Inverse folding.
């Protein structure tokens, strides 16, 4: 089977499975909608722009899980402090991501692929890590079934690149089956983002600053040696 045929079949499976899931899960979707509306108010759906295929912007849909609480200066409190008990339940069960099935129907996401990360991470990817954007992002992926947001960033992005370079329909099926198992067992993901996942941009910026400091000290040591005579 050619790559073009494989991609066409992948898209067909995305359409079939996402449409079937929405038809089967619509009572759950409506129930969650009502709960979020009652407990958190409007908006029920949280929309956020993230880089998609070839780093083109995509607006993702999720059920809202946090309040809009702010500090005295009007700044939003950290995510972990705004996360409600309902939000924790939705995140730990991955139910908050069900609206992303509409992204799959629209062709913006695939069921399987590297997760679309924050836009402000784009300047901080290493060159080889950008390969992750050469395939369509997904609801679940190779990194998600091998540690999810507990993985260190270098390892997580390396897994995304490996998937992009080794993609096959058989691999997608394997990832989907493993995802179902993990979701049913509520394993591998922290409901509180402050407990597990660090900010890639801050982490890489700190690494860069540390390297510059080390190089500067090395330069001073070389140029500041004593001279006799």
């Amino acid at each position: 089977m050619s790559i073009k045929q494989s991609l066409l079949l992948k898209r067909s499976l995305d359409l079939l499975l996402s449409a079937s899931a929405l038809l089967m899960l619509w009572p759950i979707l409506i129930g969650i909608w009502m709960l979020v509306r009652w407990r958190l108010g409007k908006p029920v759906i949280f929309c956020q722009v993230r880089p998609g295929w070839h780093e083109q912007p995509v607006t993702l849909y999720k059920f809202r899980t946090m309040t809009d609480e702010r500090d005295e200066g009007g700044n939003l409190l950290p995510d972990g402090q705004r996360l409600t008990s309902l939000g924790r339940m939705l995140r730990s069960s991955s139910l908050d991501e069900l609206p992303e099935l509409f992204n799959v129907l629209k062709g913006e996401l695939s069921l399987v692929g590297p997760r679309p990360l924050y836009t402000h991470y784009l300047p901080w990817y290493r060159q080889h890590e950008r390969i992750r954007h050469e395939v369509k992002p997904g609801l679940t992926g190779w990194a998600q079934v091998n540690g999810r947001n507990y993985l260190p960033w270098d390892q997580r992005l390396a897994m995304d690149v490996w998937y992009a370079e080794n993609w096959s329909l058989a691999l997608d099926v394997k990832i989907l089956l493993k995802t179902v198992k993990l979701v049913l067992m509520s394993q591998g993901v922290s409901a509180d983002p402050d407990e597990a996942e660090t900010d890639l941009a801050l982490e890489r910026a700190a690494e860069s600053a540390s390297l510059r400091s080390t190089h500067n000290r090395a330069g001073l040591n070389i140029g500041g040696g004593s001279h006799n005579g």
Q: What stands out?
A: Residues 3-68+79-209 form one domain.
